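Let us work through a complete example step by step.
Step 1: write down the sequence.
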Amino acid sequence: MAAPRTNLIRSPVKRGRANTYMLIMLISFAISVVGTRLYLELTGYPQVGNGTLHIAHVLWGGLALFIGAMLPLIWINSWVYNISAVLTGVGVGLFIDEIGKFITQTNDYFFPFAAPLIYGFFLIAVLLYLQLRRHDYNDPRTLLYHALELMMEVVDHDLEPSEQADLELTLKRLQASDDAEAAALAHALSSFLYSGSVSKVPERLSPIDRLSAWALAMEDRFLRRRIIRLILTGMLIALGIFTLLNFLFNILLLLDPDLTETVFLTWIEYVPNITGTTSANWYLAQIAIGGALGMVMLIAGILMLVGQIPAGIRVAIPAFAIELCIASILQFYFNQFAAVGSALLYLVLLLLALRYQQRFLIKRETTPPQNLAPAS
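Step 2: predict the structure and record it as tokens.
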């Protein structure tokens, strides 16, 4: 008998719907943070408690995290993971929203670095999600885990056509693998699947599937090639000119020795969280980065305007990404609510550019149809 492969037993296996669960968690995280901060701003930061007690929302976040972690430890049903993903996102959002209190000796909720830290943490989670989407492991052990995970739908008499097709494909790939044990088990599961004793149900779209189908329908109806090109070209040129002029205007003022002190005093008076030379220098760095990115966006917009669409898209995508990953962090330090709107705008533009590239610029490889007619 062969020795057990303990290294395989201990190595992690990516869950079949890990991408979906991670996306649900990210959406819940973003909504909870933005919603909490907006609610507190609009209501004047009310407190739950009395003269002695203060029930901070970090406690509700901890409770949501506890329940979200506990549910999959108790129940194995697939729907549990959706609930766990929502509660995890909400719990992390409510918890990290009060990070300013945990990193300052004065328990300062309004500490300026809090918003950039929250946004940076969210970016790390997004990068993890993108990494998960990029890598799909197809080794026999992972495929077998996924097949057994799909078999839970058979046990629950809840197997939908799409799940059946996914299960059949996974089992076929397992039967063709070099792992004899996995191939034998896949053959047995496949025989049971085709035995006629498996209950099936009509296809049911999840809320995310319905939203995705609606978004694709709206995209086909309203976001045609010319419309997306006009939106991207117009926004690239407008944003490029605005940020570049803002940079040049401030630099020209600072180059005048008689106006330098006046400019810094104006920033300190009107820009949130500028309290001295150091923060003013960081604000200047934000303006400089914005100016550099504005130049790049303007170049991308001009390229698209003159018909060099692929080149314009290739220049615009990294500019939007750098804006979201670097410039937005600085903006969150100075004005968190303005930064939310700006980040959402650049995120939409980045998604539009990526989608345009995917739909209209990437040449999909096509396999010519084979002549299946028998030779004469």
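Step 3: interpret the result. The longest helix spans residues 225-255.
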